[in-house]
Every structure is written in structure tokens, then in C-alpha cells.
Amino acid sequence: MNRWLLFLVVILSLTANCKTLEHIPAREVVVKFDQIDGAKWYNILVRAYGPTSAPPYETISKKNEIRLLLTPGHYQIRVQAVKSLKKQSEWSDWKEFWVHLKPPTNVSPTNWRLVVPKKSAKTKTVTFQWPRVQLAISYYFKLVGPNGQAITEKTIKSAQVSVELPINNSYEWAVQPLVTKAELEDKNIEFDWHQFSVGSPLNGVHTVTIMAEQKRRAKQYEFKFQKYLTITQLAPPFYMKSPTPHLKIPLPPGHYQVQTRSIGHNGRESSWGEVTSFFVKIPQPTLITPLFGEVVEATDFTQSKVRLHWRPIPEAAAYNVKVYSANGDLLINKLTDKNKIEVELPHESTYRWTVTSYNFGEPLPATNLGEHLSAAALPPADFSINRYIPLLLNSAEESSQLYGWMRYLISNMNFTAGNYDNGTRVNDTLLGGYGELALGYWRRKANDGLLATYTYSGLQVNGFQNFFWHDWALLYGKRYLPSPHTRIRWWLGAEYEQAPEVLYSATTSAISFSRISTVGPEARAAYLYSFNEKWGAHVDATAYYGLASVGTPNGLGAVPQLSYSLGLLATYKISKMITSMFGYTYQIENAAYNSSFDGHTNTVQLGGNFFSFALEFGLETPEK
């Protein structure tokens, strides 16, 4: 599954001014997706979900988001990143999203309303009403009580519902019109919540008692209130009068300042007193996601991203977010002025979280860690992250900073040589093979490193005489990750290489062995693709150019020659640390040096078709 794009669908709370011929209200939708490094633009396809003969809507975007005007319903989208006209990514999988109807605003009970029951009543039947919404086939109704516990959730066809509620409590409710029952499968629905209370002031709204300085001949007292809109900006003042120096006034949450003065019997007003600041307790947010008992999809071992989202409080200047482990250890303690935050937590664990809101100007808590809560004191909003099961490539070294491989190639090799010094001409098929040991290092949190290789080679002449030679190389390499299924690796460096010089006489069968030694640049490249967690394919290529002479049989200089190989192998992951590779390799090794006869060159070519077997391994515990 193509997982390079993770979509986040955000429905803006506005309705477009235009309507279709059927008077269906359109909504503006913002679809965001992961930004791809190097992408100059994105090709985008959007279509209605389900069977349809209509072609998808096509467009492009230079940003990693797009705004669409769509009628409510179920849609799909896919994206392709374009780095150049010749370099494009694969299309992502189709991703579903919903466009929802706008929630009704003219509702009852309205926000901040106090519902008063009859005297001595312990409960109150509250009727929730809203206007019918065009195109809605039903309505999803949610009601929560103190601390966010769910009281009722139901899908109804009428535009009202009655619920009997205990008094002296605060509640929140929301209603979402539905175009289909399947719409509830969308976890991105953002409900429009309304607060009210039954028989007591709303949670966070308090009756405040203000005391003025008592004056002897005062007939009444005047109070001037101003609410802080920001930490420095004040709202216009409002005034209250009282016949006594004590004033009781219900105020919504916020940060206020107050001044008082007295008014005498003759109407004469005293000067305003000193400014006094005070806070009205702000309500605590209702948590949206993750909900109690929700299981969050893991995205990594130690850095699974979890989006904590809560309903915003209009009066809040800041929120304090805390995440605890299942045993009460405080893991995350952050301040934010947004109503959502993204945190990173290890997989396969359970967590508790809470959010506390603060007024403008209210002292904020320290965000240091170290707090521990008992099980009884832990917040009730717990969630868990499931186990992360990555789709790893079959290359073992990708999960390890230190890595290596052992490779062996064996086959009948074609040996062709021409030596003008002693008149030898060879064109024979000999049994031989190559054994290679490689040790590499990728810099941690980087994509480059070093690779050292040692190759031990041999062949058999006349079925019993063996001859061996060896090579060394040190290379600098890089790796790329075009997609979760693929890796590209390359190395470039210097190599010391030996080639066999086998001389024998067809008449006397006398055999002599020697070596042609050179140094020069070497380049390697490998392409890896995984079909699943076990099986994959591996294509590699090597090129060496023997540039400088180190030693030859007659002491004369070597002639630069190109040697190369190309391999196609299947891979099978044995464990997290070991991957086996087996398949076909074509290899040609060329060497030449100057003959003692002017104008002639002694040449050697060795190689052919090989069966290749390798084990690639990590040398440390895979990073989690």
C-alpha cells in the first residue's frame, strides 16, 4: 500500500454563497497532505466515492493543500508529487473524505443558557430543538455531562429530542445533520458544541461579589468593569450600581479589572478608586480525540504521532496539555494557544491525558516533567497506541547503523589471455569463484557513510592446480528512500585490484602463475525493492577502472582497463538482522600491461555468468 501520503481533511465552518440548480448548499473544503521534499507541484484527482461513470476532477497545486467547493457527500482523492516533467512519484492510494452539512446555529437551549427547574425538583426534562436542514435524512445528537462523560448519542429523524437530566449540573450538546448514515464513519467530524446548565450556573460562570470602600454619606455605589480581550487589550467598560458597597454579579469566564466610586445624596460622585484585577474561573475544555478507550494507529516505534484535540474555549489564552503513562508518570507537559497539539509517544502502550485552560494574564504553570499521579488521581481520558508493524525492506542494513555482507560467486569462468612475451595464447573455461566480505557504516540520523570490501578470488587450472588473488576497496556512500518500498544506494571510492596471469605451454603443459596489480576508482550502486515483509528484489552494478600500475609480471606498466559486473538477485529476510540474497551475476574482469615487444600489450579477460549467494547482516540492534 502506498503510504507516502497521509491526508488530513479539514472542513471549514462556512457555506458558499453559490448554490447548484437543485439548491444544494456547497461547502469549502481544505484537503492537506504531506509535503514531499523537492516537489515543484502536485497533480490531484478528486472523485465521488462509489461506482460512477463520471471522470475525476483534475487539478494541480503548488502547495501541499487544495481548496475545493463541494456539495455534502463522500469523496476520494489521490495525489502525485512532481519534481520535474521527467521525475514524478507514483500516484498515492485513493483516500476517502467527507463533506458534511453545516450544523444548525439557531438551536435551543442556546449557548450559556440556564434552565431552571421547578422548586424541589431533582430532574428537569430538557427539549433540544433545531431547524430542519435541507438534504438531511437524519440528525446525529450527542449530549455529555460534567467531566465530558457521554449521556446519550443517537441518530434521529426529527429535529428535536427530549432528555431528562439531573439538576445542578452543566452539560454540552451538539447536533450534526447527516446526508447518509455512513457519514458517521468519518472521524474528522468537528461538532459545534453548545453549553448550558440545569438549576445552577454554567460550569466556569460564577457570581462574583465585589466590595467597594464604604462611605458615610453614600447613597449608592457605582462599579466599572472591563474585561481583558488579550493580555494588554481591554474591552469597553460596562457599569453597575448598587445601594450597598456589596455587589453580586454573574460574569462569564475571563480576566477583569474593576474600579468603584460612591455617589452621595446630592448626586455628587467621588473619584474612581484604584484598579483591582480578578479572574472568573474559566471552564475546562471538552476533549474531542482521542476519546476514552480509543485505539490510535501507531506510526513508529518511539515516535508515533498522536493528535490531541479539544473543543476551544473562546476566553482561553492558553492551554496546558499533560500526558501520563498508565502508571501515572508525566510524559508530556506543554503549553499551547491552539486547541490541538501533536505529540510523539512509543507504540503498544496506554496513556491518560488532560487539558487545562487559562485566562489572559493568568499565571501559567511550569512545564517541567517529573510529576507522578496515583491511579486514583489519573485523568479519565485514556487511550492506547497499537503495536507498530513496519513494512521493512529486505535489506538488513537499513535497520542498523553498522552493517555488512558476505557474498560468494561460483561458476565456470571464461579465461582469455594473450602474452606476447612468451607467445602464450589462452582461451579456456576454468572453474573459479569470488568471495567478498563487506563492512559498512551509515552515520546515525544521516544518509551517508563508508564501506570497506575485501575480495578473495581463485580459479582451478587443469582440474587440480589452484591459484588465488585478492582485492581491497574503501568507498564513500549514500542512500535514498524514494518510497517505503524502495532503497537506492551508491558508493564511490578507490580499490586495489589484482588480476590473474596464468601462463602455460600447450606442448609441455608447464604452468606458471602471476598477478597484474592496479589501483583506480570504483563505483557501486544497488536498487532494492520489497514486495512484502519477507521477499524482495535486489539489482546491483559495479565498475572498476584500473588506472595506475602497482605490479606486473614483467615489471612494465599496466594499461588502464574497465572491469564491471551486474547482478539480479531475489532477497528473503531471515530475521531483522539477516537477509539472504541469491540469483544471477554477470562479471567481466579485464587487465592488461605492456609487453617487452614494442607496440604490443599483454591482455587478460576473466569472467562470465555466475551463481551468486549472499548474506547481508546488521551489526547492532535495529533502531526503534
Structural account:
The protein is mainly β and 624 residues long. Helix content is 0%, strand content 59%. The protein has no helices and 40 strands. The strands form nine sheets. A ten-stranded antiparallel beta barrel has the order 30-31-32-33-34-35-36-38-39-40. Strands 3, 4, 6, 7 and 8 form a five-stranded antiparallel β-sheet that branches. β38 and β39 form a beta hairpin. It is elongated. The two termini are 22 Å apart. The model is unreliable at 1-23 (pLDDT under 50).
Task: Give me some keywords for this one.
mainly beta; ten-stranded antiparallel barrel; 59% strand; elongated
- Give the uncertain stretches in residue-range form: 1-23
Q: What's the end-to-end separation, in Å? A: 22 Å
- What is the overall silhouette? elongated
SS summary, helix count: 0
Mean pLDDT: 83
> Helix/strand-derived class?
mainly beta
C-alpha-based Rg, rounded: 38 Å
Within the largest sheet, what's the order of strands?
30-31-32-33-34-35-36-38-39-40
Q: Please count the beta strands (DSSP E, at least 2 residues each).
A: 40
Percent strand equals over 45%
What share of residues is helical? under 10%
Largest sheet: 10 strands, antiparallel, barrel
